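User: Could you walk me through two proteins back to back? I'd like the raw sequence and the C-alpha cells for each, with a short line separating them so I can tell where one ends and the next begins.

Assistant: Of course. Protein one, sequence then structure:
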Amino acid sequence: MNNISKEIAKITYQALDEKKAEDIKVLEIGDITIIADYFIIANGTNSSQVQALVDNVQQVLSKHGFEPKRIEGVRSASWVLLDYGDVVVHIFSKEDRLFYDLERIWRDGKVTSKEQLEA
C-alpha cells in the first residue's frame, strides 16, 4: 500500500463519517488483487443521503487535490462507484448493499479501522 492511497482512504472515511454514512468499511485488498489498494464501502439510508455522501466525498477529496478517474451509477443513487485509482469507493443504498454483499465477495481483504488509517 502506498501512502497516497492510505491518505485518500483516510480522507474518504472522514468525508463519509461527516455525512453520517452507515457501516463504513475499509478493506485493504492490495495483497489479493491489482485492482486497487483499498475498497471503501458504506451506505446511506435513502437516495438523497447516498447522493450527499457522494457529493461530500468528491468535494473533500477535490480540496486535497484528488479527482476521480471514473464515476459510475450516479443517476440511480442506489450504488455509486467512485474510482480514485488505488482507492475505489462504493456508496450504496441499504438494500443494494445487502444484495450485492461486496464484503462477502472481498472477504479475503483485510478490514482496516479508522485508527489504522490515521496511524
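----
Protein two, same layout:
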Amino acid sequence: MTTTQRIAVVTGGMGGLGEAICRRLADDGYAVMSMHSPENRQVGAWLEAQQLLGYHFTAVEVDVARFDSCAAAVESIHQQHGPVSVLVNNASITRDASFRKMTQQAWDTVLRTNLDSMFNMSKQVIEDMLSLGWGRIINISSVNSQRGAFGQANYAASKAGIHGFTKSMAIEFAGKHITVNTVSPGYLRTRMVEKVPPDVMQERILPEIPVGRLGEPAEVAELVAYLASERAAFITGANLSINGGQHMY
C-alpha cells in the first residue's frame, strides 16, 4: 500500500453484498478492510478465494454491536494501515418473527447490530476524515425500512433508523468535505435470499418487483462506489433506493 492509497472499511464485508462492495472499491484503487464477525469460521478460505480472483483484502474481526470492539478493530487499522477515508456500514442480521412471537432478545439483538453499529463504527473514523479533509460514509438500509414487512418489526425499525442517523451526520459534516448517504437495496441475489423456497419466490416476491427479477449485488456495489468517489461530492443526506421498482416514493 502506498502512503497515498485511500483506505475503505466495509462491515459485513464477507457476505454477498459486502463481498461485491469490497471488490468494487478495490477496483477503484482503495485498500479495502473487510470486517467480519467473530463467529465467521471461513475467513481464511474467503481471503484465498478472493486472492485467486486478484483481490488482496485485509480481514478485520469486529463485533459491530459493541463499541469497544469497534474501537479496537479500527485502532488496529490505524496502526497497520493509516486513517480511514471511506466507511460502508453494511453489517446486519435478521431475527424474524411476528410481533406477538418476537422476544425482547430478538428485538435487542437486531437493533444493536443493525442500528447501534452505525454509531459504533462511524465514531471511530470521523476524526480520520476530519483530519484528512475528506470522507465518505455509506449506510446500507433496506427496502423494508421504507415499506415495512410482516415479521420484521425489529429489522424494519433498525433499518428505518439508519436514515435519520444519515441525515443528521450529513448536516453536521457537509462543510468538511465529508458526505453521508443511505443506500436502500431491495431483494438481491445473495446466498441468503436464494434459500427462500421457490414457490415463495415465484408467487410472492418476484411479482412485487416491476423489473421482474432479483437485484445483483454488483449493481448495488456500483452505486456504493459512485457515492464513495470524488464525483459524488454534491450528494449527501440522500436515501438512494435500488429495488427494481418494488417500492417507489
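The chain has a mean pLDDT of 96.

Let me know if you want the two compared in more detail.
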